[in-house]
Amino acid sequence: MLLIECPYCGVRPELEFVYGGQAHVARPGSPAECSDEQWVEFLYLRENSKGIHAERWRHTHGCGRFFNALRDTTNDHFLATYRVGETPPPAALERAAGPRP
Amino acid sequence: MQRFSGFSLLRRGLSGHRDWQPQWRKAQPKAAYDAVIVGGGGHGLGAAYYLAKEHGLTNVAVLEKGWIGGGNTGRNTTIIRSNYLRDESAALYDHALKMWEGLSQDLNYNVMFSQRGVMMLAHTVHDVQVFKRHVHANRANGVDNEWLTPEEAQAVCPLLQTDDIRYPVRGAAFQRRGGTARHDAVAWGYARGADALGVDIIENCEVTDIRRDGRGAVQALETTRGLIQARKVGVCAAGNTSVILRMAGVRLPLESYPLQALVSEPVKPIFPCVVMSNTIHAYISQSDKGELVIGAGTDAYTSYTQRGGLHVSSHALEAICELFPMFRRMRMLRNWGGIVDVSPDRSPIIARTPVPGLYVNCGWGTGGFKATPGSAHLFAWTIAHDKPHPINAPFTIERFREGRLIDEAAAAAVAH
Ligand SMILES: Cc1cc2nc3c(=O)[nH]c(=O)nc-3n(C[C@H](O)[C@H](O)[C@H](O)COP(=O)(O)OP(=O)(O)OC[C@H]3O[C@@H](n4cnc5c(N)ncnc54)[C@H](O)[C@@H]3O)c2cc1C
Asked: Is the terminal CB of chain A with fewer CB neighbours within 10 Å at N or C?
């Protein structure tokens, strides 16, 4: 089981959280004007990264809030968690680019 | 190829089984092939076998980054059935089931296909309605599936606890032609068959990039064992498909999740069929070695770790202990995970890609072992003809753009 750091409540066991899929997938602003390709992009295409993955989690059995995380999908290490509306912390991305723990 | 028969087993038995040849050659990669299959699981090895056997393409290689059958083929719980809801799926999976029935003979290799029946338990009113709908839809498609009352289910599987549990069993859908097969034997049998027809099976060879020509068509593969030219490349890489297709600039609607299984210590034959319960989430059968083979669920998050969380497998064991209280004291020997490639409609993709010469067979998610012979056969056909066979024609990448989903997720809501 993973230990996940909620940016509001601190480190808690995975069981308190619900996974919310890839982060930063923007909903199309004016749906009626979207092409089929744009809908495919929004609805179905995901990065499915082997490596650093930006993703959403919700601390359902805690504060109930959504937040974002950077996790390495090759070893499930969390590099950082950050609040909704924030961009991924650059320090974590640099660490990710460097040697692996 | 040394053929297996009762006589050859007896003769070599008398000389201590010392004069068997290796089942396939340790091939060295050549500079070029007419077609290359990436991924040495059942689907990839089978595709190479049918390319050689049915389409006369023998200058073919299978590139496997690890050892053959070391991916999901060797990690799965081997449930085989074809009682899927949609017409397209029923045609696809039943094509495979019919091929399973003759596979050992065709390969001259015992894949231990056992039609012991697959029982899917219904625990709620909703389950009952959904499964009855399946039974009727399957019959209309010529696929056997029957509805059993709780008493009938117990008559088939006497160990099953149907009441006095939190979610009593209200009935079951039972496909008698379904069952299990020996996963390793499927990989080995196809490898041996393909090798005998001239296919090179190259292990420890990871594809690291795809080179394309000015037209954008596939030209060569960069691998950890050098550059390999090929004009036709078929990818059967399960959980790693997104990574490989991205090398050619193709994005796919797939997400990779860990899925777990576990086996108990071996015991005498006690379990006559396969039992699956999606509602309380567990799958169980008994291998010919005597182990109880138990399937758990996927983790919540995407990952490539081939592990999975402990709470996911203990959840499956809780369900098994509810349904089969006598297994409470069994010890589990091993558990492991495989990375499954899940598509949005839980149906596979067996198709050409936008890149000329590049074909993909993926999206089998939690349930592609059952389809191995059919999938391999249709994929070989698609590669050889550069167009889909009528059975896999609906299983395109474009169906997500066109809205022609083959929705087995909502329909079946079952993992296998
Ligand atoms: C725990 C578990 C239980 C399951 N239970 C069932 C079940 O009961 N019934 C059922 O029908 N299905 C089941 N499945 C699903 C089933 O195992 C798969 O759908 C099926 O085996 C996929 O076969 P494959 O040949 O496509 O993939 P694999 O056997 O995974 O083969 C893909 C191969 O590609 C190789 N590869 C990856 N990347 C590269 C690269 N860059 N270069 C070279 N090679 C590469 C991998 O090493 C691997 O060997 C289960 C899966 C799991 C994990």
From this structure: C
pLDDT of the residue at B1: 85
Q: What is the pLDDT along chain A (101 residues), one digit of tens a residue?
A: 899 999 999 999 999 999 999 999 988 889 999 999 999 999 999 999 999 999 999 999 999 999 999 999 999 999 999 999 998 888 777 776 665 54
- Interchain pair A53, B302: CB under 8 A: yes
Q: Atom 3, ligand 1: which residue's CA is nearest?
A: B76
Q: Is the pLDDT of residue B414 over 60?
A: no
- How many distinct structural domains can be found in chain A? 1
Best B298, B302, B315 residue to mutate vs chain A (most A CBs within 10 Å) = B302
3-state per-residue secondary structure call for chain B: CCCCCHHHHHHHHHCCCCCCCCCCCCCCCCCEEEEEEECCCHHHHHHHHHHHHHHCCCCEEEECCCCCCCCHHHCCCCEECCCCCCHHHHHHHHHHHHHHHHHHHHHCCCCCCECCCEEEEECCHHHHHHHHHHHHHHHHCCCCCEEECHHHHHHHCCCCCCCCCCCCCCEEEEECCCEECCHHHHHHHHHHHHHHCCCEEECCCCEEEEEECCCCCEEEEEECCEEEEEEEEEECCHHHHHHHHHCCCCCCCCEEEEEEEEEECCCCCCCCCEEEECCCCEEEEECCCCCEEEEEEECCCCCCCCCCCHHHHHHHHHHHHHHCHHHCCCCEEEEEEEEEEECCCCCCEEEECCCCCEEEEECECCCCHHHHHHHHHHHHHHHHHCCCCCCCCCCCCCHHHHCCCCCHHHHHCCCC
Among B307, B310, B400, select the one facing A40 at the smallest CB separation: B400
pLDDT single digits (tens) B7-53:
999 999 999 999 899 999 999 999 999 999 999 999 999 999 999 99
Host domain of residue A64: 3-97
Report the separation in Å between the CA atom of B18 and the middle of ligand 1, taken as the mean of its atom positions. 33
pLDDT for A99 equals 58
Q: Is B65 in the pocket of ligand 1 (CB under 6 A)?
A: yes
Per residue in B66-90, pLDDT tens? Answer: 999 999 999 999 999 999 999 999 9
Residue of A nearest to B340 (CA): A48
pLDDT digit string, tens, across residues B166-175: 999 999 999 9
What is the structure's pLDDT at B413? 47
E strands along A2-100, which residues?
Answer: 3-6, 10-13, 18-22, 52-58, 66-72, 77-83
Q: Is the CB of B61 under 6 A from ligand 1?
A: no
The ipTM of this complex is 0.93
CATH number of the domain bearing residue A31: 3.30.2270.10
Please give the pLDDT value at position B273: 98
